Give the backbone structure.
Amino acid sequence: FFVLSGFLIYRPFAAAQVGGRPTRRVGSFWWRRVLRIVPAYWITLTFFWALGAFTLGSDWWRYYLFLQIYSRFTVLGGVIQAWSLCTEMTFYLLIPLWAWAVGSLARRARSDRARVAWLLAGCGVLWVAGLVSRVAIEAWAPSYRQLSFNWLVTNLDLFATGMALAVVSESPVGD
């Protein structure tokens, strides 16, 4: 799922960057994500909470702000499947900023191939960060290992794989 999300969400950014065009505006990207996801999630969460399907306790705000995955006491509360949605929301916060940063490096390239190389290098950095974060958590905070599998940082390699596929899919053929 995260590979597919990385591909679909990053592809418009990759298309613009490979073509040397400006990318989407950050604010409009975030606003569209919020409108597409937050109302439906909040309605679902509130509906099942009101029905008594679960209790949210004093940490109810974590669920509404997509923060339940960062506490072992709330990670499996509320709508349990929403853990992946929380990870996605974190990705949505990161991706336009990452695209801007890597894109600013890629825009300096003189050829399409060089731009593609910069974009793939950026995906490589995220991929390595995902792998390193899992190793680091295992070494330095093993009690957080299971909880950390819900976090963006430990899934960055999955998102980056999809992002790299998006760059390749937008790369000019035969250049």
Observations:
- The first helix runs from residue 2 to 18.
